[in-house]
Request: fold
Amino acid sequence: MPTKKKSERQPVRELPKLPKELLDQLPETLMTAEAIEEASAAFKKALIERALNAELGYHLGYPSGAQRPEDETNQRNGKTGKVR
Reply:
């Protein structure tokens, strides 16, 4: 029977360091799988919203909260997002 070739392992990628202040907000006791999933979902949501706001700021040419440049015709409408 032919032997299966061993696949080469990919090197472990370097993950970004999380600030201690962020980690201090998590409980130091045991967490249930549901609690871990909720914390992960909340972090992903905040990360995606920040990325989308940055993308919109880049697209419009000015950050949120700033005055629209005179030469720009496209602008934010001032409405807030949906609250869930």
In short: The CA atoms of residues 43 and 57 lie 21 Å apart.
